[in-house]
TrEMBL record:
Belongs to the binding-protein-dependent transport system permease family. This is ABC transporter permease. The keyword Transmembrane helix applies. The keyword Transmembrane helix applies. InterPro entries: MetI-like (IPR000515), MetI-like_sf (IPR035906). It is found in: Cell membrane. It is a multi-pass membrane protein. Residues 49-233 form the ABC transmembrane type-1 domain. Keywords: Cell membrane, Membrane, Transmembrane, Transmembrane helix, Transport. It comes from Actinacidiphila epipremni. It comes from the Bacteria.
Length: 249
């Protein structure tokens, strides 16, 4: 059932609405669904929400694009070459233990507080996630397939196209799904650093004036973006990996 995953969010909204309607929820702490819906309409009519959404989408999209490209390139270099593995894997495994947001002060020192820093911080987090999962798939390819390729005397391009790519795709898509989430998580933080546009900036400004309704609108938009982007990746994964049978099929 395509909409079965919405059951949890729907139940959560119903509980929220009942708590607000019966007076158990103090509107000074958390606005009710009606107030949030009215604020959403006002933000859309004024164009404020759309402007901030477009800026956030651009930042997250660029960070995701550069991070995915870098993660795949590094995984291929480390997974298909011993020298690449010795040079890259240790460094990236160490970086894995360091939260990307912990690098924020250093990134500000190097790149300033402009758009470049925001995109780079997002891209760094995405790169590590994509690398870890793609590299694990590359190095986890069943040796029997490698031996079969050798017995068939496949050329290097044929070996990559028929063995390496199919073997790495499942891990790549796992990394891509996690990378989409990582891009949104990074976006929330970087948009609070010298930003004048973006959903994170809008929510931070609302927090200054205790506007919980605006904050919730931002959270809902983030949630929708995350849910839709994950659904798109899952759909692409099912199409590309249609040859693979799993328990989810």
């Amino acid at each position: 059932m395509p909409f079965a995953r919405l059951t949890g969010p729907v139940v959560l909204v119903l509980v929220w609405w009942l708590s607000s309607a019966t007076g158990y929820l103090d509107p000074r702490i958390l606005s009710g669904p009606g107030s949030v819906a009215a604020t959403f309409v006002d933000l859309v009519r004024s164009g404020r929400l759309q402007d901030n959404m477009l800026v956030s989408l651009q930042r997250a999209g660029l960070g995701l694009l550069f991070g995915v490209l870098a993660g795949v390139a590094l995984a291929v270099a480390a997974g298909l070459s011993r020298i690449g593995e010795y040079l890259l894997d240790g460094t990236l495994q160490v970086k894995r233990a360091i939260p990307s947001l912990a690098l924020l002060p250093l990134m500000i020192l190097w790149l300033g507080i402009g758009e470049e820093m925001k995109v780079v911080v997002i891209a760094v987090g995405v790169t590590v996630v994509v690398y870890i999962n793609t590299y694990a798939s590359l190095t986890g390819i069943d040796r029997r397939y490698v031996e079969l390729a050798e017995s068939l005397d496949l050329t290097r391009p044929q070996f990559i196209g028929k063995v390496v790519v199919p073997g790495a795709l499942p891990g790549f898509f796992v990394g891509l799904r996690l990378a989409v989430t990582a891009s949104w998580l990074g976006l929330v933080v970087v948009e609070q650093v010298n930003a004048t546009k973006g959903l994170g900036y809008m929510m931070f400004q609302a927090q200054q004036y205790a506007q919980s309704d605006v904050i919730i609108v931002g959270l809902v938009v983030y949630g929708i973006f995350g849910f839709v982007s994950d659904a798109v990746v899952r759909a692409a994964e099912r199409k590309v990996l249609s040859w693979r049978r799993t328990l989810a099929d």
